[in-house]
Amino acid sequence: MDAGGSFGVLYKSRSRNPVQEHVLRRKTSKDNCDRFIPNRSAMDFDYAHYMLMEARKGKENPVASSPAKEAFRKQLAQALNLNRSRILAFKNKPPTPAQSLFPETSSLQQAKPAKPRRSIPQTSDRTLDAPEIIDDYYLNLLDWGSRNVLAIALGNTVYLWDATDSSSSELMTVDEDTGPITSVSWAPDGRHIAVGLNNSEVQLWDSISNKQLRTLRGGHESRVGAMDWSNHVLSTGGLDSLIINNDVRIRNHIVETYRGHHLEVCGLKWSSSGQQLASGGNDNLLHIWDRSVASSNSPTQWLHRLEDHTAAVKALAWCPFQANLLASGGGGGDRCIKFWNAHTGACLNSVDTGSQVCSLLWNKNERELLSSHGFTQNQLTLWKYPSMVKIAELTGHTSRVLYMAQSPDGCTVASAAGDETLRFWNVFGTPELAKPAPKANPEPFAHFNRIR
């Protein structure tokens, strides 16, 4: 158990005329060489004499010029290729520099200016108070929804902060017997939110109407500290070491139960395809579950069981530009960020960060990874992937940075720590073309009000 875990030139070509071929191949008895080179000067003289005498007769007395003579003149001119046309001639103008015959040279001459290096602010853009936030590594108390609303659990209350107008509101509060709140997770539509409780229950809320829609019971025996959505399926991980898949559209919501951990499940992350689920636990184990494998064999059988970490595994992040790449972070006794091939289960790289890893987030616009840490610097570290060279270290928190969440546009990161502050960092910059949040399909949640 880990008590302090981590988060061309174009020429005019001519085919030889058959008559020309015949003339070139004629030989006299005196020709003994291998190839015949016609005496064009003598032939030119004969033709000039003919044109001077016979052509003049024709012009002075057209009747005297017979069709046979005219045909012979044309045939002779064609045979000798004496139409006075240029043998080598451009049909088009020489290419301009933009149409260079050597594109490599042209591209070097017209090279684009280098992309300016992104400036990363070393201080947070905004700091908000977060009183009564629970300083517990195994919980997940911060999430940013697709509608640009941030949810944070402080004690027994969930607060919502709208990033579009910086307004805040209270969503719900539970009593002491039910609380405290141990996890929050936005549904893909950005309207509905799941709230995990200390008493093993999970409540589903509509954030627009501020109404509770239903309560998921009977799955866990103790607190629910980790949750993540895959469309209409909500996966929950508990202190009881169980992972439960809940289909929120149906009355009997428990559809699968994964058993593989033997201590608290503190990290859950679905892949972008919704096919694979990564789970990390206080037992130092990392599992990858595949729904197709589970449905064909046994729901309790994992795809990969990874035992390389030597401390609790909470920080999990699927790579947005390489679907089968998973990053995981170990606790205080491990301090490593590891990269995994989710298809084969192979560990691709391991980097000792020097401090406990509490949370991981990928940059959606660049090949970068952000990690948050505990003792002793309580910093956020930006890494270049795959070299894992440090790009920046962001400091300001005075306690371990347990929770991180990313804005829908992928630019801003919110971090919450045991120092009871919520900080916003413009660490991932501004993309050239910010992608709008995907339009959520309301169908999976359309029948919430009908379920009891």
From TrEMBL:
Pfam family, one: WD40_CDC20-Fz
Top-rank lineage group of the source organism: Eukaryota
Function field: Component of the anaphase promoting complex/cyclosome (APC/C), a cell cycle-regulated E3 ubiquitin-protein ligase complex that controls progression through mitosis and the G1 phase of the cell cycle.
GO biological process: anaphase-promoting complex-dependent catabolic process; cell division; positive regulation of anaphase-promoting complex-dependent catabolic process
Lineage: Eukaryota, Viridiplantae, Streptophyta, Embryophyta, Tracheophyta
Name of the protein this chain belongs to: CDC20/Fizzy WD40 domain-containing protein
SUPFAM superfamilies named in the record: WD40 repeat-like
Organism: Papaver somniferum
Sequence ranges assigned to domain CDC20/Fizzy WD40 in this UniProt record: 128-425
Record flagged with keyword Repeat: yes
Sequence segments annotated as region (Disordered): 93-125
Cellular component GO terms held in the UniProt record: anaphase-promoting complex
WD repeat windows: 174-215, 258-290, 394-427
Keywords: Cell cycle, Cell division, Mitosis, Repeat, WD repeat
Family: Belongs to the WD repeat CDC20/Fizzy family.
PANTHER family from the UniProt entry: CELL DIVISION CYCLE 20 CDC20 FIZZY -RELATED, FI02843P
Annotated GO MF terms: anaphase-promoting complex binding; ubiquitin ligase activator activity
InterPro entries per the UniProt record, alphabetical: Cdc20/Fizzy (IPR033010), WD40/YVTN_repeat-like_dom_sf (IPR015943), WD40_CDC20-Fz (IPR056150), WD40_repeat_CS (IPR019775), WD40_repeat_dom_sf (IPR036322), WD40_rpt (IPR001680)
Bias kind Polar residues: ranges: 98-110
Gene3D superfamilies: YVTN repeat-like/Quinoprotein amine dehydrogenase
